[in-house]
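Example 4.3 (complexes with small molecules)
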Amino acid sequence: MIERAQVFDPLWSRPAVPRDVERALTGRRIEALRRRGKYLIADLDGQCHLVMHLRMTGNLLWVPPGEDREPRPHLSVRLALDDGHRLLFVDQRRFGTGVVIEGTEQLGEYLDQRVGPEPLAPEFTPDVLARAARGRRAPVKAFLLDQRRVAGVGNIYADEALFRAGIHPLRPAGRLRRAEIERLHAGIVETLERGIDRQGASIDDYRDSNGERGSMQDEFLIHLRADQPCIRCGRPVTKMVAAGRGTYVCRRCQPVPRPRRRRTEAP
Ligand SMILES: [Zn+2]
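Answer. The structure with zinc ion bound is encoded below.
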Protein backbone atom coordinates (compact mmCIF):
# COMPACT_ATOMS: atom_id res chain seq x y z
CA MET A 1 0.00 0.00 0.00
CA ILE A 2 1.26 3.45 -0.86
CA GLU A 3 1.50 5.18 2.48
CA ARG A 4 2.91 8.40 1.18
CA ALA A 5 3.30 9.70 -2.38
CA GLN A 6 5.57 12.68 -3.05
CA VAL A 7 5.95 14.25 -6.49
CA PHE A 8 8.87 16.67 -6.33
CA ASP A 9 9.03 17.55 -10.01
CA PRO A 10 5.95 19.18 -11.56
CA LEU A 11 7.29 18.37 -15.05
CA TRP A 12 6.85 14.68 -14.25
CA SER A 13 3.10 14.89 -13.71
CA ARG A 14 2.30 17.75 -16.08
CA PRO A 15 -0.42 18.76 -16.93
CA ALA A 16 -1.69 17.35 -13.61
CA VAL A 17 -0.35 19.16 -10.57
CA PRO A 18 1.77 17.14 -8.12
CA ARG A 19 -0.68 17.49 -5.26
CA ASP A 20 -3.52 15.91 -7.25
CA VAL A 21 -1.33 12.98 -8.27
CA GLU A 22 -0.15 12.51 -4.69
CA ARG A 23 -3.74 12.49 -3.50
CA ALA A 24 -4.79 9.97 -6.18
CA LEU A 25 -1.99 7.55 -5.22
CA THR A 26 -1.97 7.73 -1.45
CA GLY A 27 -3.66 4.80 0.27
CA ARG A 28 -3.80 2.66 -2.89
CA ARG A 29 -2.56 -0.91 -2.95
CA ILE A 30 -0.16 -1.84 -5.78
CA GLU A 31 -1.61 -5.00 -7.31
CA ALA A 32 0.82 -5.48 -10.17
CA LEU A 33 3.77 -3.88 -11.93
CA ARG A 34 4.07 -4.48 -15.64
CA ARG A 35 5.28 -3.08 -18.93
CA ARG A 36 3.60 -2.26 -22.22
CA GLY A 37 5.96 -0.97 -24.90
CA LYS A 38 8.11 1.58 -23.11
CA TYR A 39 5.43 2.32 -20.51
CA LEU A 40 5.76 0.99 -16.99
CA ILE A 41 2.39 0.45 -15.36
CA ALA A 42 1.51 0.09 -11.71
CA ASP A 43 -1.97 -1.40 -11.40
CA LEU A 44 -3.55 -0.03 -8.22
CA ASP A 45 -6.72 -1.09 -6.48
CA GLY A 46 -10.00 0.46 -7.55
CA GLN A 47 -9.08 0.20 -11.28
CA CYS A 48 -6.56 2.99 -10.92
CA HIS A 49 -3.32 2.89 -12.92
CA LEU A 50 -0.08 4.80 -12.68
CA VAL A 51 1.55 4.89 -16.13
CA MET A 52 5.20 5.94 -16.18
CA HIS A 53 7.71 6.54 -18.97
CA LEU A 54 11.44 6.76 -18.29
CA ARG A 55 12.24 8.70 -21.50
CA MET A 56 15.95 9.53 -21.83
CA THR A 57 17.46 9.39 -18.37
CA GLY A 58 14.71 8.18 -16.04
CA ASN A 59 15.32 5.29 -13.67
CA LEU A 60 12.94 3.45 -11.41
CA LEU A 61 14.60 2.24 -8.22
CA TRP A 62 13.21 -0.25 -5.73
CA VAL A 63 14.72 0.40 -2.32
CA PRO A 64 14.30 -2.15 0.49
CA PRO A 65 13.47 -1.02 4.04
CA GLY A 66 16.32 0.48 6.00
CA GLU A 67 18.51 1.05 2.95
CA ASP A 68 19.62 4.62 2.44
CA ARG A 69 20.05 4.89 -1.30
CA GLU A 70 18.33 8.06 -2.43
CA PRO A 71 20.00 10.25 -5.06
CA ARG A 72 18.38 13.45 -3.78
CA PRO A 73 19.31 15.92 -6.54
CA HIS A 74 17.50 14.00 -9.30
CA LEU A 75 14.66 12.51 -7.30
CA SER A 76 11.37 13.21 -9.13
CA VAL A 77 9.02 10.97 -7.17
CA ARG A 78 9.05 8.92 -4.00
CA LEU A 79 6.37 6.34 -3.21
CA ALA A 80 6.77 5.07 0.35
CA LEU A 81 5.00 1.77 0.94
CA ASP A 82 3.61 0.59 4.25
CA ASP A 83 6.04 -2.38 4.32
CA GLY A 84 9.01 -0.01 4.34
CA HIS A 85 9.92 -0.32 0.63
CA ARG A 86 10.31 2.80 -1.47
CA LEU A 87 9.76 3.15 -5.20
CA LEU A 88 11.83 6.06 -6.54
CA PHE A 89 11.68 7.75 -9.90
CA VAL A 90 15.06 9.36 -10.50
CA ASP A 91 15.67 11.46 -13.58
CA GLN A 92 18.63 13.67 -14.35
CA ARG A 93 17.23 15.35 -17.46
CA ARG A 94 13.61 15.30 -16.31
CA PHE A 95 11.93 14.09 -19.50
CA GLY A 96 10.31 11.16 -17.66
CA THR A 97 6.58 11.27 -17.01
CA GLY A 98 3.84 9.80 -14.87
CA VAL A 99 0.10 9.90 -15.36
CA VAL A 100 -2.71 8.52 -13.23
CA ILE A 101 -5.49 6.90 -15.24
CA GLU A 102 -8.78 5.99 -13.59
CA GLY A 103 -10.45 2.96 -15.17
CA THR A 104 -9.01 -0.08 -16.88
CA GLU A 105 -10.89 0.63 -20.09
CA GLN A 106 -9.44 4.15 -20.18
CA LEU A 107 -5.98 2.66 -19.67
CA GLY A 108 -6.53 0.40 -22.68
CA GLU A 109 -7.50 3.35 -24.86
CA TYR A 110 -4.52 5.37 -23.66
CA LEU A 111 -2.09 2.59 -24.54
CA ASP A 112 -3.73 1.57 -27.82
CA GLN A 113 -3.24 5.11 -29.12
CA ARG A 114 0.45 5.01 -28.30
CA VAL A 115 1.76 1.47 -28.49
CA GLY A 116 1.86 -1.08 -31.31
CA PRO A 117 2.40 -4.85 -31.14
CA GLU A 118 4.87 -6.27 -28.60
CA PRO A 119 7.81 -7.68 -30.57
CA LEU A 120 8.51 -10.45 -28.06
CA ALA A 121 4.92 -11.69 -27.91
CA PRO A 122 4.20 -14.90 -29.87
CA GLU A 123 1.64 -12.95 -31.94
CA PHE A 124 4.43 -10.84 -33.43
CA THR A 125 5.18 -12.68 -36.67
CA PRO A 126 6.79 -11.56 -39.94
CA ASP A 127 3.22 -11.19 -41.28
CA VAL A 128 2.35 -8.74 -38.50
CA LEU A 129 5.49 -6.73 -39.28
CA ALA A 130 4.74 -6.81 -43.01
CA ARG A 131 1.21 -5.52 -42.39
CA ALA A 132 2.51 -2.71 -40.16
CA ALA A 133 5.03 -1.68 -42.86
CA ARG A 134 2.66 -1.89 -45.79
CA GLY A 135 2.27 1.43 -47.60
CA ARG A 136 4.62 3.24 -45.19
CA ARG A 137 6.92 5.64 -47.01
CA ALA A 138 8.87 6.52 -43.86
CA PRO A 139 12.48 5.32 -43.70
CA VAL A 140 12.59 1.98 -41.95
CA LYS A 141 14.54 3.45 -39.01
CA ALA A 142 11.81 6.03 -38.36
CA PHE A 143 9.24 3.26 -38.77
CA LEU A 144 10.98 1.17 -36.11
CA LEU A 145 11.22 4.11 -33.70
CA ASP A 146 7.50 4.87 -34.08
CA GLN A 147 6.08 3.12 -31.03
CA ARG A 148 2.65 2.81 -32.67
CA ARG A 149 4.12 0.46 -35.32
CA VAL A 150 6.27 -1.80 -33.12
CA ALA A 151 6.46 -1.30 -29.36
CA GLY A 152 9.65 -0.88 -27.40
CA VAL A 153 12.31 -0.49 -30.09
CA GLY A 154 14.57 2.48 -29.32
CA ASN A 155 17.50 4.07 -31.12
CA ILE A 156 20.14 1.54 -30.13
CA TYR A 157 17.98 -1.49 -30.81
CA ALA A 158 16.81 -0.15 -34.19
CA ASP A 159 20.43 0.22 -35.36
CA GLU A 160 21.32 -3.25 -34.13
CA ALA A 161 18.25 -4.88 -35.69
CA LEU A 162 18.83 -3.18 -39.07
CA PHE A 163 22.48 -4.24 -39.09
CA ARG A 164 21.54 -7.83 -38.29
CA ALA A 165 19.02 -7.71 -41.13
CA GLY A 166 21.44 -6.06 -43.58
CA ILE A 167 18.99 -3.23 -44.29
CA HIS A 168 19.93 0.42 -44.71
CA PRO A 169 18.06 2.71 -42.24
CA LEU A 170 16.84 5.01 -45.02
CA ARG A 171 15.05 2.32 -47.04
CA PRO A 172 11.32 3.09 -47.14
CA ALA A 173 9.57 0.67 -44.78
CA GLY A 174 6.82 -0.14 -47.24
CA ARG A 175 9.28 -1.17 -49.96
CA LEU A 176 11.04 -3.93 -48.08
CA ARG A 177 10.84 -7.27 -49.79
CA ARG A 178 9.41 -10.31 -48.03
CA ALA A 179 12.85 -11.80 -47.34
CA GLU A 180 13.97 -8.49 -45.86
CA ILE A 181 10.90 -8.29 -43.63
CA GLU A 182 11.72 -11.77 -42.36
CA ARG A 183 15.32 -10.80 -41.65
CA LEU A 184 14.20 -7.60 -39.94
CA HIS A 185 11.70 -9.50 -37.81
CA ALA A 186 14.43 -11.90 -36.70
CA GLY A 187 16.81 -8.96 -36.13
CA ILE A 188 14.34 -7.16 -33.86
CA VAL A 189 13.61 -10.25 -31.78
CA GLU A 190 17.28 -11.29 -31.46
CA THR A 191 18.37 -7.76 -30.56
CA LEU A 192 15.73 -7.29 -27.87
CA GLU A 193 16.34 -10.74 -26.40
CA ARG A 194 20.06 -10.04 -26.24
CA GLY A 195 19.37 -6.65 -24.59
CA ILE A 196 17.14 -8.20 -21.93
CA ASP A 197 19.67 -10.97 -21.33
CA ARG A 198 22.36 -8.31 -20.76
CA GLN A 199 20.04 -6.24 -18.50
CA GLY A 200 19.94 -3.34 -20.93
CA ALA A 201 22.53 -0.88 -22.19
CA SER A 202 24.04 1.55 -19.68
CA ILE A 203 25.83 4.07 -21.87
CA ASP A 204 25.40 6.77 -19.27
CA ASP A 205 22.31 6.82 -17.09
CA TYR A 206 20.34 3.62 -17.38
CA ARG A 207 20.22 1.44 -14.26
CA ASP A 208 17.97 -1.47 -13.44
CA SER A 209 15.58 -1.35 -10.47
CA ASN A 210 18.39 -2.44 -8.13
CA GLY A 211 20.62 0.36 -9.37
CA GLU A 212 22.86 -1.99 -11.41
CA ARG A 213 24.31 -1.21 -14.83
CA GLY A 214 23.46 -3.36 -17.84
CA SER A 215 26.17 -4.71 -20.16
CA MET A 216 24.55 -4.56 -23.61
CA GLN A 217 26.82 -1.62 -24.51
CA ASP A 218 29.79 -4.03 -24.49
CA GLU A 219 28.17 -6.08 -27.24
CA PHE A 220 26.93 -3.56 -29.76
CA LEU A 221 27.34 -4.92 -33.27
CA ILE A 222 27.15 -1.51 -34.95
CA HIS A 223 25.83 1.17 -32.58
CA LEU A 224 28.48 3.69 -31.39
CA ARG A 225 31.14 1.96 -33.54
CA ALA A 226 31.82 4.86 -35.94
CA ASP A 227 35.11 4.44 -37.89
CA GLN A 228 35.73 1.02 -36.37
CA PRO A 229 35.80 -1.95 -38.74
CA CYS A 230 32.46 -3.63 -39.41
CA ILE A 231 32.41 -6.97 -37.59
CA ARG A 232 31.19 -8.68 -40.77
CA CYS A 233 33.13 -7.11 -43.63
CA GLY A 234 35.82 -4.94 -42.04
CA ARG A 235 34.78 -1.74 -43.76
CA PRO A 236 34.68 1.28 -41.39
CA VAL A 237 31.29 1.90 -39.79
CA THR A 238 29.63 5.18 -40.83
CA LYS A 239 27.72 7.52 -38.56
CA MET A 240 24.79 9.36 -40.09
CA VAL A 241 21.52 10.94 -39.06
CA ALA A 242 18.27 9.06 -39.67
CA ALA A 243 14.91 9.89 -38.07
CA GLY A 244 16.73 12.75 -36.33
CA ARG A 245 18.92 10.33 -34.38
CA GLY A 246 22.57 9.38 -34.51
CA THR A 247 22.57 6.22 -36.62
CA TYR A 248 25.35 3.72 -37.33
CA VAL A 249 25.52 1.77 -40.54
CA CYS A 250 27.87 -0.37 -42.61
CA ARG A 251 27.45 0.82 -46.17
CA ARG A 252 28.56 -2.51 -47.58
CA CYS A 253 26.45 -4.81 -45.39
CA GLN A 254 23.49 -2.39 -45.49
CA PRO A 255 23.43 -1.12 -49.08
CA VAL A 256 22.37 2.49 -49.58
CA PRO A 257 18.97 2.81 -51.25
CA ARG A 258 19.30 3.88 -54.85
CA PRO A 259 17.10 6.79 -55.94
CA ARG A 260 14.53 5.63 -58.45
CA ARG A 261 15.71 6.47 -61.96
CA ARG A 262 13.67 8.97 -63.86
CA ARG A 263 12.82 7.83 -67.33
CA THR A 264 13.88 10.93 -69.18
CA GLU A 265 16.54 9.53 -71.44
CA ALA A 266 15.62 8.03 -74.75
CA PRO A 267 16.63 4.37 -75.12
ZN1 LIG B 1 29.96 -4.56 -43.12
